[in-house]
Amino acid sequence: MNAQILITGAPGNVGSEVVRALQAKGIPFRVGARDTYKARQLLGNNIEITRFDFLDLETYSPSFAGIDRLFFVRPPALSNVQRDIAPAIQAAIKSGVKQIVFLSLQGVEKNSIVPHHKIEQIIMESGIHYTFLRASFFMQNLSSTQAAEIRDEGEIVLPVGKAKTSFIDVRDIAAVAVRALTAGYDENHKYTLTGKEALDYFQVSDKLSSVLDRTITYTNPSVFRFVWKQLASGRKLSYTLVVAGLYTLTRFGNAKAVTQDVEAILGREPISFDQFAQDYRHCWQA
């Protein structure tokens, strides 16, 4: 059976989980990846992978050929939506894609600064069927982006203060995405996906300390110190400013709301932070 679903954002956190979930269900799909060699190394050779690069228009046609449903993840490095993202959306629709499942952000409807807001607007204005997955912060950010500092320094360095975050496990996001990709798409949906509780980073550090049996400290840096450390570690300024902006909004309480969307869609409670910490404890062990 030919693939009718294209997955972008793999082998990233969510995209790779969407791949695993579709494989488990025996549903054919295609992965569009900028680095196909890396994608094959991480995802395996038994799936269809094509080169897809938002900045290379020549990769659009072979990637979208025969596709009618698209799982769409914005590459973190691309923030100029009109220049770098819109052409791919337009090409997908022109090629026959009928539904876009877009990985967005919690609270994006109130935040016109982040690129995801502009992407949602472009998708809605295009007239294509859509499902927006407005996800809270990923638990897996701690096991990937922040893994090294937790493992090597015993620290979490994020400028969030005492604010709480309704963390969600990417495995739950992927499960909702697969449901959206494999169900009927004659209606448009906007889901806000969160875990079942909101935690501050002091609580997070305590939970990780308990699982790892050593002290993990939340340093609670200022935004300026966070930006300085990110730049010193080699992060690009544009990426750092977007991330700093998101954490600043979190500091004001924008990520603390807990919804029941995951439970309503999947018929079960979201994966707890405690379960996530147990499942990923190897990521923080020396």
Structural commentary:
This protein has 286 residues and is of the alpha/beta class. Helices cover 43% and strands 15% of the residues. The chain contains twelve helices and eleven strands. The protein has a seven-stranded parallel beta sheet, with helices on both faces. Strand 1, helix 1 and strand 2 form a beta-alpha-beta unit. Helix 1 crosses helix 7 and helix 9 runs antiparallel to helix 10. The protein is globular, with a radius of gyration of 19 Å. The model has no long low-confidence stretch (mean pLDDT 94).
Q: Uncertain regions: pLDDT < 50 for 5+ in a row? A: none
Q: Please, what is the average pLDDT? A: 94
Order of helices and strands: EHEHEHEHEHEHEEHEEHEHHHH
**How many helices does DSSP assign?**
12
Number of strands: 11
* CA-based gyration radius: 19 Å
Give a short account of the largest sheet: 7 strands, parallel
Q: How far apart, in Å, are the first and last alpha carbons?
A: 44 Å
Sum up the overall morphology in one term.
Answer: globular
Keywords:
alpha/beta, 286 residues, two-stranded parallel ribbon, globular
The gist of it:
The protein has 286 residues and is of the alpha/beta class. It is built from twelve helices and eleven strands.
What order do the helices and strands come in, and which of them pair?
Blueprint: E1 5-7, H1 13-25, E2 30-33, H2 36-43, E3 48-51, H3 60-64, E4 69-72, H4 81-95, E5 99-105, H5 115-126, E6 129-135, H6 147-153, E7 155-156, E8 164-165, H7 170-182, E9 189-193, E10 199-200, H8 201-212, E11 217-218, H9 223-232, H10 237-251, H11 261-266, H12 273-279
Parallel strand pairs: 1-2, 1-4, 2-3, 4-5, 5-6, 6-9, 7-11
Antiparallel strand pairs: 8-10
Helix pairs in contact: 1-7, 4-5, 8-12, 9-10
